[in-house]
Amino acid sequence: MAAESLRVLVHASELLTGEGIRNKDGRLIEEHDVGQIADAALVYSVKRVKGREIPAKVRWVGRTADLPKKFLKARRTDLKLRRAVIPGLVDAHTHLVFAGDRSSEFARRCGGATYEEIAREGGGILRTVTATRSASEEELFRLACNRVREAQGYGIRTIELKSGYGLDHDTELKQLRVARRLKMEFPEVLFQSTYLGAHAVPKGRSKAEYLDEMLRKTLPEVASRKLADACDVFIDEGYFTLEEGSRILQAAARAGLRIKVHADELSNTASSELAAGLGALSADHLLQISDAGIEALAHSNTTAVLLPGTAFYLKAAHAPARRLIERGARVALASDFNPGTCMTLNLPAVMTIAALYLGLSRAELFAAVTYNAACALGFQERRGTLEAGLDAAFAILPFERFEELYYRFAWPSGAKAF
């Protein structure tokens, strides 16, 4: 058997393991839970994939001065106490695969036009649906690859991506085929692909007809061809009802998919309670969550995924982050990258918004984009902390301290993987 190939980072200005966050399952996090190590070292194995060397598993983490002798001959990189190392960020909610541009709509909204006015003229989500349907698979793949590369530069190493801009059988499958190709193209990134056919009702079709197509045709094919890992539903006024969402989610679970919910965003629909009751990975948005919904999430394994960039973009009231945290819910943050309501892949900028407007502490922010976000995808056994035996999914920051990640608002993409 060939000897294991190892690499060593030494003299990191600080390294945050997140071990204490894992021990608390991401709840009621305090500063000492981040596992801060000054002048730190990280030992990891590497593997070759597609001719490239990429990190595989963490083998040891600790102070540089305590580096075991058996690792002294491994190839090393000296960070010279100038760069911090953290677990790779996890973006647990994106709509990354789409075509088209809606910048003109944003400009109009900033000038006073309403979303309803724009939608009546063929804008809004239907504009993106039209563009995505028209785009070839190759064009969607090219656009998505560029977005993944940008996300990597912000320190993101794990990404969830949804379909939902097809709203028909063929285009939903096309989006998910692109997601599958991304997994092959970027072996250093862990992806979760999510079927979100129930994102809206397509123009020119009744909800009943479209719901029947999803349940009888698209969802079974998605599952049988293993095109998605999970299924999501947008439960809200004007979209899908609690009963309709429950039917889709239960069908997805029977087909072997994990489930999640766009919950309580525009109105309170008790969809957070549904998510918790069905054992969903996550309930996302939660701008209008009730006290009952907060209690349901606090006493479940369903992660509350907050998307403050979207509320910021829409000038809406933010989700009640502090109430969720203080009741014991596991809270994550994600970008909600999409062309209509949050056109950014900059998860650190979303962290800035969360720090300022949701009142999250340094430790809570760290947990929200690492271990807790990994839980929202069901990846917590592999990702979210830097501990021996876990994936060596780390980010070398261009800063000396973790908090510079969100203190330097909207910094340019440039965090190295290795």
Write the layout of secondary structure elements.
Layout: E1 6-16, H1 19-23, E2 36-49, E3 52-63, E4 75-78, E5 85-87, E6 89-91, H2 103-110, H3 115-120, H4 125-134, H5 137-153, E7 156-162, H6 169-185, E8 190-198, H7 207-224, E9 230-234, H8 242-254, E10 258-263, H9 271-278, E11 282-285, H10 291-298, E12 303-306, H11 308-314, H12 321-326, E13 331-333, H13 347-358, H14 362-368, H15 371-375, E14 394-396, H16 404-407
CATH architecture of the largest domain: Alpha-Beta Barrel
Task: Domain count, please report it.
Answer: 2
Distance between the first and last residues' Cα: 26 Å
The biggest sheet amounts to: 8 strands, parallel
Radius of gyration: 21 Å
CATH superfamily membership of the largest domain: Metal-dependent hydrolases
Descriptive tags:
four-stranded mixed sheet, 418 residues, eight-stranded parallel sheet, 36% helix, alpha/beta, TIM Barrel
Question: Any overview of this molecule?
Answer:
This protein has 16 helices and 14 strands. With 418 residues, the protein is an alpha/beta fold. The chain has two domains: 6-86 and 386-407, Urease, subunit C, domain 1 (Roll), CATH 2.30.40; 89-375, TIM Barrel. α6 (169-185) runs parallel beside α7. The longest helix is centred in the middle third of the chain and has 18 residues, at 207-224. The radius of gyration is 21 Å and the shape is globular.
